[in-house]
Design brief:
Elements lengths: L4 E10 L6 E11 L4 E5 L6 H8 L7 E6 L2 E2 L5 H11 E4 L11 H12 L4 H10 L15 H13 L5 E5 L7 H16 L3 E5 L3 H6 L2 E6 L2 E2 L7 H18 L12 H13 L3 E2 L6 E2 L1 H24 L5 H14 L2 H10 L16 H5 L5 H13 L1
Parallel strand pairs: 3-8, 3-9, 6-7, 7-8
Antiparallel strand pairs: 1-2, 1-4, 4-5, 9-10, 11-12
Helix pairs in contact: 3-4, 3-5, 4-5, 5-6, 8-10, 10-11, 12-14
Bound molecules: adenosine-5'-diphosphate and magnesium ion.
Length: 377
């Protein structure tokens, strides 16, 4: 599947010679349809420039930008304008409403540029942002939050696939920020692709993914959320079982695209290699895979042998949870308590741990700490 938004080494240079500014300096990234991406970074790092490029309000000085399979560089000015009005809805920090037009007319203005005006649709868009009762108010008669909601209705009225928002809550109080983020969440749930510039850490967390800009470049992300780490573990487990000659391959439910993206990220942080098109472990990745496989298989034994759970699916799903939360100490205690089992319930080998060679005998602390971690899960 081709990416929905695809930037390859995109640059945007302002000025020349001594006044040259590389506002966007070689950015490569892809977004899938329906993804919500937050662009973050200090003032002047190129966020607005990048958003304007994606929105076709501006054109790259170099590199390629494709949206929905269309290379935007191949479009004429008028084609670009049409493409933009059909594909993209904008929300700005300054609401950019026309002061002498009322809320409804401001929304209909976007339709006018697109094709035909349709009062019913414009009213429906206002309703979607909860402002059907303010249709005849002028911007000056609306609060900041309401003005931004009118701007969102205007962005929505042509039913765009992509919503671009540049610090949409930068001028709003906390309550209205919440309302705007809730609206964006709704749009995301409807399957729209959202690219949003924000300073707000919490808003950034709403997004599927964050890009941190610094001096026109994407700053390498070196810290990952618990969910991302769990995804890495799943990839490692799958790769591990592929190297075993066993019949039981740990399944994963990533799409091909998600898998490739994970592998790329994991290659960047030194967990896997992709040499000759084959995914393999680095030494660091090997150790991490070994440990997660060990935790997973010990947990399976625990659920089957100690807790007498018979249901395969339940054992599997509990083990998947446990493999992420067991500390090395608890893992070793669990292993010791069960007498250092050598194979999982399917017969695949359990990688040995330090405890397996130290001959320590189980004690009651093992049982207690194990029970604690079961309760926590
Ligand atoms: P951000 O949105 O992250 O604050 P911008 O994309 O607005 O950053 O700006 C990135 C850099 O490009 C800044 O150094 C800014 O001064 C410069 N820049 C932005 N627009 C222009 C322009 N039209 N002409 C010259 N320089 C510009
Ligand atoms: Mg900006």
């Amino acid at each position: 599947m081709a990416a929905f938004i695809e930037l390859s080494d995109v640059t945007r240079v302002y000025g020349s010679g001594t006044t040259e500014v590389r506002a966007v300096n070689g950015i490569t990234f892809t977004a899938q349809q329906g993804e919500w991406i937050a662009i973050m970074g200090p003032s002047g790092s190129g966020k607005t420039t990048l958003l304007n490029l994606i929105g076709c309000l501006d054109q790259p000085s170099g590199g390629a930008l494709c949206i929905g399979g269309t290379n935007t560089a191949t479009l004429s000015r008028s084609e670009l304008a049409r493409f933009r009005s059909e594909t993209i809805g904008f929300v700005f920090q300054q609401f950019h409403l026309v002061p002498h037009l009322n809320a409804l007319e401001n929304v209909m203005l976007a339709q006018y540029f697109h094709s035909m005006t349709d009062k019913g649709e414009a009213l429906a868009a206002l309703k979607q942002v909860g402002l059907e009762g303010r249709a005849t108010h002028l911007p000056s008669q609306l609060s900041g939050g309401e003005q931004q909601r009118v701007a969102i209705a205007r962005a929505l009225v042509n039913d765009p696939k992509i919503i671009l928002a540049d610090e949409p809550t930068g001028n709003l109080d906390a309550e209205n920020q919440r309302i705007v983020f809730r609206l964006l969440s709704d749009l995301h749930a409807q399957g729209r692709t959202i690219v949003m510039v924000t300073h707000d850490e919490n808003a950034g967390k709403l997004a599927d993914r964050r890009l941190n800009l610094e001096h026109g470049r994407i700053r390498q992300n070196l810290t990952f959320s618990a969910e991302e780490n769990q995804d890495f573990d799943e990839v490692l487990e799958h790769l591990w079982t592929r190297t075993e000659q066993s019949t039981h391959i740990e399944s994963h439910d990533f799409t091909e695209v998600q898998w490739r993206r994970l592998i790329n990220t994991m290659a960047q942080i030194g967990l896997v290699t992709t040499e000759n098109g084959k995914d393999g472990f680095t030494p660091k990745g090997y150790t991490r895979a070994r440990n997660v496989i060990r935790r997973h298989r010990l947990a399976e034994r625990l659920f089957r042998d100690v807790l007498s759970i018979q249901d395969e699916a339940e054992i599997e799903s509990s083990a998947c949870k446990f493999e992420h939360i067991l500390s090395p100490e608890v893992t070793d205690r669990m292993c010791t308590l069960m007498g250092h089992p050598e194979a999982c319930p399917h017969g695949s080998p359990i990688p040995r741990g330090e405890c397996c060679t130290s001959n320590r005998l189980p004690d009651t602390a093992d049982l207690t700490s194990m029970m604690h971690s079961i309760k926590r899960a």
